[in-house]
Recover the amino acids of this structure.
């Protein structure tokens, strides 16, 4: 099992296999030692997307890919 805190650089794909971006960093909120979401960026000048933990379907530590259970358009963006 891969810890969300160790997923920086992983590729994130939506439920159809389309690339959302790369994990920039885990985001903490309710608990100081457990991430609530991941900040994902699609490109150098692209806005970040906030991927909540409950949208993650699987994490493949070997290939470095995180599969989501939602479509790319359902993920909120932020600065």
């Amino acid at each position: 099992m891969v810890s969300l805190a160790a997923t920086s650089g992983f590729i994130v794909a939506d439920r159809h296999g389309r690339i959302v971006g790369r994990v920039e960093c885990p985001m903490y909120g309710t608990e100081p030692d457990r991430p609530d979401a991941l900040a994902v960026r699609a490109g150098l000048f692209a806005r970040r997307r906030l991927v909540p933990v409950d949208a993650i379907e699987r994490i493949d530590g070997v290939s470095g890919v995180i599969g989501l259970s939602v479509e790319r358009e359902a993920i909120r963006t932020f600065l």
The CA atoms of residues 56 and 68 lie 4 Å apart. The mean pLDDT is 91.
